[in-house]
Fold this sequence. Notes:
Number of domains: 2
Bound molecules: adenosine-5'-triphosphate
Oligomer: single chain
Strand content: 25-35%
Number of strands: 10
CATH superfamily of the largest domain: P-loop containing nucleotide triphosphate hydrolases
Structural class: alpha/beta
Amino acid sequence: MGEQGLIEVREITKRYGSKKALDRVSLVMREGIYGLIGENGAGKTTLLHILAGILEPDEGQVIFEGQDIGRYRKQYNHTLGYMPQSCTYYKDFSVEEFLLFMCAMKEIPKASQKERVERVLTQVNLLDERKKKIGALSGGMRQRMGIAQAILNEPRILILDEPTAGLDPYERMCFRELLRELADGKAILLATHITQDIEELADQVIMLHRGKVLACDSIGHFRGENLETVFIEVINGQ
Ligand code: ATP
């Protein structure tokens, strides 16, 4: 990995009509877990969608391994895992059927699909549930399946939009353990309102407010402080 980082967001601006959702956002992400916090409407999902290649920025670029992802889309998709904020899964699919379907969507060769599905199910501890219909899964199991589909292609960039929302404290703890295990060799961007997840997991903290990055610091910078309080102080200082 070069000095420039694994993935770089350069001066991204995104408007919805006259609303500027992102305003000249720049970030450099290396391997590690990045916690993204921001109030409702701060622009988190918009930023994640741009990084996931779902939305095009109006200005600026996302650079992966030195290349603009706009011109390098297919290769970038092969190295990207994305777990959206809310997914409407096919409830009548079994977990295994859904993951096999996602393998096909991700163009994973047929010969390795079964082995790949079994491997991710083991990683997220859902192997015993593989025959269950998605509609019959608990919230925690469904979140784990969301992670499973995101890591099928062994991504180096993993983007997670509020992955622990709605989970009970025990499930959240399990989810954090899973992310720690998955973090090796990846850049993980985790958007959440749950600052405890960031305090316990993240290497870096990104604070977004009204479409602007107010801070991007190592978690060590905030040690011993309550991240929620720090964030409120930072936005009040604007
Ligand atoms: P939340 O925490 O509530 O999920 P967020 O930080 O993810 O919020 P975004 O969803 O990125 O914020 O929205 C940023 C801004 O852009 C908000 O003001 C939102 O109303 C606006 N916005 C988002 N999507 C659209 C859209 N499709 N059309 C118009 N405005 C939009």
